[in-house]
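Contributing new records

If you add data, match the layout below exactly. Sequence lines come first and carry their own label; structure lines follow with theirs. Keep one chain per record. Anything else will be rejected by the validation script.
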Amino acid sequence: MLQACNQDGVPVILANFKRSFVERMRTKQRFYCPVCGERVIVKAGRTMIAHFSHSPNSSCAVVRGEGEYHERGKLHLFQWLKNQGLNVTLEKYLPEIRRRPDILLRLGRKVIALEYQCAALDREELYKRTEDYRKLAIEPLWILGGNRLKRTGARKMRLTSMDQSFLTRYNQSDSLLMNFYCPNTYQFCLFRQIQSAGNGQFYGDLHFLPRRHTRFLLLLQDRKPFQPFLLESWLQEKQKFRTKPPSKWTGRLHQSWRQWLYQKGYHQSLLPSYVYLPVFGQYRMKTPPWDWQSRLCLEYLKGLPLHRTVSLAPCYRLLKTEIKPSSEFPLISSPHDPIREYLKLLESLQMVSFENEHQLKKQTPITFPENVEQALSDDRKIIEALQKQY
């Protein structure tokens, strides 16, 4: 930990002092954990950031191993917030819930617990910690370490199943967002307007900002409205999906889906362009968009008669086992409904129309392209139609 109290009860942050002065403090002062009262050890090597450590057999309730990368990042964030004139406390212990957030921030009547997470975290611990803060009307704000950022393209990154639990949405008007910070480069990475493409791949608006040029409120909001250029990136992936040799597509789920296509007499490269469209709620689906959207289109919508009012209920029954519970995403205050979002996209393309919240009509038949060239052309037309709506 970065902060402890000396024998006079005065809080001390070792990292604020030069190494030579820390060495004098080590010999002349005693330091104690502000949570449990145990005496703690001064750690101050030539390469590590100066900090305090409990003894190996400590009984402290909030002891947790934190690496040097985490300690530096936490200190950077604390100093960054303090330099903005904000009311912040480092490693404040909350006895009611026996938690010690990395940083506690007060903005008027709002209290925020900032947690800087660099190591793997058990999903249950994320849920429990978030729930505990909210019991005290404290809003958790998670910033992931830059060491967890797995960038795979200009607007694309891979998120593990656990990382996806950190997806954040504050209200219905907000898109998904995530924040990263790297103490090695002194940079934030703001990931905004995030959309899942399936298989752990996520698209979005990526911004790398120097810490000194970043204000705290940027972490809580989108910088700008939805960018239609993100649809262009989606189109490129969809074209790869049609033209990539099938042998390159591996995995049990994908093989199962291809077997289902084969039994239906369809081929991946010649699916209707209504299949594999971007919806913000894709993160809640267990299968990639081409899988569940093709099942919905070909097993239900394709067989519907034109201009007849039907219920949405069969859509949800068909895909009920494919939807993840909203509880897996504790930082999303208003969960998306990917099935309804997809049907709304089809309505914007004039394939269906909603009669009310629970019923729709099919307006045009679902047709298949005759060859790959036509399929690619149809994909382009649909993406261009969606771009005009933003």
